[in-house]
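Hello,

Our lab assistant flagged a job as stuck in the queue for most of the afternoon. It eventually completed. Since we weren't sure the result was trustworthy after the delay, we are filing this so someone can double-check. Below is the sequence as submitted and the structure that was eventually returned. Let us know if re-running is recommended.
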Amino acid sequence: MFQGGGGPEIAMAETSPHTAHRAWLSAERIKIASDRLIALGPFGIGLDGALAFVPVAGGVYSLAAGLWLLTEAVRAQAAPWTLARMAAYVLFNTASAEIPIVGQTFDFFFRGHLMAANALQKDIARRHGAPHEAAIADARRRPFALLAAPVPAPAATSAPS
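-- returned structure --
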């Protein structure tokens, strides 16, 4: 509960596990699309790396994907430290892409969206657990599915008649 300036206490609504899990799955899709479309062992290439050498498009994509991740983090009510780390990863990733050749090459290898998504997913998992394995597998299989199958809601228990 929060009490501000001697006034009444204001209860901060806790994010539901359903909302948090949707954010977790969105982060999974973004990190795969941005940094792991083609996986080569521990290395991966995604849209962020592929667009790094395309003027304007690389920066626009990097910023848009980063803002989407941060929006999901706010929606899931991530901890302030998690939001700060994510913002730093996204800012560094986007800014580096704007430096010709050296920065673009660095951006090709730097997995900022993956690191930001992992930070959000760890925050959510710590508070709500991870989503169902089937939902995670679907997000990995279809990273561009914006309107993917909904996360199964917890089963409601009914009283026996």
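-- support follow-up --
The delay was a queue issue, not a problem with the job. The result is valid. Strands lie at 2-3, 9-10, 38-40, 43-45. The helical segments are 17-35, 47-50, 57-75, 80-97, 102-109, 112-128, 133-141.
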